[in-house]
Amino acid sequence: MTTIELVKVSNYILRDITLRIQSGTIHVVIGPNGAGKTTLLKVIAGLTWYKGNVYFNGKPVDREPPWKRGIGYVPQTNALFPHMTVLENVLFGLRNKGLSSSEAIALARHYLKLLGIYELKDRYPLTLSGGEQRKVALARALVIRPQILLLDEPFTGIHYDYRVHLVEIIKRISREEKPTIIIVTHDLDEAIELGVNYTILMSGRQVYTGDLRGLLKTINKHLHYINVYECIIEEVLSESGLAKINCNGITLMTPLEQVVEDKVIATIPADKVILYQAEKCYPRTNCLRGRVVEVKPWGNNLRLVKVDVGGISVNVLTDTELVFNEVTVKLPIKDLKVYSIR
Amino acid sequence: MKINFILRSLVIIALVTSIWYAIFYIHPSPLLPPPHDVAYALVDLVLHYNLLGQLVLSLYRVLLGFSIGIVLGLGIGLVVLLSRIVRDIVYPIIAFIAVTPSFAFVPLLMLWIGLNDLLPITVVAICTGFPLAYTLISGSKNIDPNIIDVALTLGASRRTLVFKIILPLTLTHIASMLKLEAGHSWRLVFVTEYLAISSGLGYLMMRAYSTIRVDEIIALIIVLGVLTLALQYLVEKIETKITSKWGYIKTTYTIR
User: Fold this and answer.
1) What is the DSSP letter of B47?
2) DSSP secondary structure, A78-104, as one string
């Protein structure tokens, strides 16, 4: 268990990051590409240079090399050693620690079984699927019993079923071994499911650090590719698994498996919202009539359209050319996620 | 597959020979002897000029020089990788020698070493060793930096890093470079023998040239070509064996 503290950390991308991460918790760092999320992980791991100070449990570690910081690191590319089998990959860290062969193999077996990849132990990484490779990388990081676990975009490029599994595993590790976990992601769903505290990074600057409630309140200001609404449950239709919720006067139908508190947060990514230039919208559920407020170019051929729907604003990522100011937006039920505010 | 290959080779040889004969009969010239003359010259070379003995001698020079070069190259490369200070000083020198055309060293070494057996061996050793060291060092820079980062968090010492990660991962670069270099050392030995030594295949070629024996020259060209191909094939086999194990190459693709 390690409390991590960053004080005025700056380098080629980060600007004055001051951050305190509670020991044994999961801290999620969110931000767009190029915001410095990976660099932040590398600063904590001691893999890149920086000005300022990093403390573990109050002790400065700026002069400690990566292997003395007690870090388990899973980079976005997994970075498995392609010339070693899965088992050899996992054993690598233990061998460097000078563990006896039988001890090391017992530990490796434990973590390979925990992640459900024991039967892959003699395969070479390049013959594995992306999800399997991610698990091997995770096992390799966990087996050295790190005090701090750094996960860089652990869910990117992983199939949905696998993601659910991975979320479960990370929760279990957090519960049983209590390392301090830092997850970098741009995916809100897993972030909300896993995180205790959050940091939003924008071009190297820390624009928010705090709990989920605050994150959801501020996230729309910074990250336009996600829509977040505070809503109240009006009616639960238990037989269909749906609920009618009211978000600032707008009524939406959302999926809801169990009855939670009255107040909920509904989210939908901007690219999942469908934009119609006429009144027709079928099926009618969650179709909202609104007015275009702002259009911004987004990437090479997309535009971010901000639509005002009687009090709430809906961000839409679309490739359609806009003709009319009056549009209809549809928030498909399957893409809406509802979270209770803890 | 094997029968197919032999059949195809026979067809190609037959085709080339018949075209050759056709040219010979349409336009006879002392500068293009017919295939049977070349075959006879080959037999003559084997019987009276100890072609096989000379060939073994050349091969011995190639292989010895090549082996010394590999040991030299790996040695220098590893020392450089293990020590940062050495790298900063030595790397530019290695790069300079590695990129300079190898033939440029032949005249200098002729004067330094003299016209003896050591000359072709030294030339090959230098011209294999330095490019090998260069490939090893520059190849280490092409490794995914994340792999190095992870290895560092997992407690790898510099030695572990070099021997367990960098060396195995640059092996594919090294293997493809050695494949080229195998053909190249042949050329070097041949040229050195041609210029300076009175034994070996290059010497036979020199002799054939100065007596204007076109049939012998062509016979020697064929022998050389076949040998170089065989050598490259061998190195290629070794390379595939190493890399296919890790799943880099799942099947060998051929362009049809």
Assistant:
1) H
2) ----TTS-HHHHHHHHHHHTT--HHHH
CATH code of domain A224-340: 2.40.50.100
CATH of domain A4-221: 3.40.50.300
- Hey, how many other C-beta atoms are within 10 angstroms of the C-beta on B135? 21
Q: Where are the domains of chain A?
A: 4-221, 224-340
Shortest Cα–Cα distance, A337 to chain B (Å): 34
Q: Is the dihedral of CA B76, B77, B81, B84 positive or negative?
A: positive
Q: What is the CATH number of domain B33-245?
A: 1.10.3720.10
Task: At A45, list the tokens.
Answer: 């791991």
Give the single-character DSSP code of A229: E
Cβ–Cβ under 8 Å, residues A237 and A274: no
Dihedral (CA of B167, B171, B172, B173) sign: positive
The minimum CA-CA distance between B164 and chain A, rounded to whole Å, is 9
Is A297 an interface residue toward B (CB < 8 Å)? no
Long-range contacts of residues B251-255, Cβ cutoff 8 Å, at least 24 apart: none
Q: Where are the domains of chain B?
A: 1-32, 33-245
Tens digits of per-residue pLDDT, B75-131? Answer: 999 888 888 778 788 888 998 998 888 888 888 999 999 888 899 999 999 999 999
CA A178 to chain centre: 19
What does pTM read for this prediction? 0.76
d(CA B40, CA B215): 8
Please state the ipTM of this predicted complex: 0.80
Report the alpha-carbon distance of residue A258 to residue A253 in Å, rounded.
Answer: 15
Partners of residue B146 in chain A, C-beta under 8 Å: 75-77, 79
Tokens of B207: 């002799």
pLDDT single digits (tens) A270-292: 888 888 887 777 777 888 888 88
Q: How far apart are CA A32 and CA A153, in angstroms?
A: 12
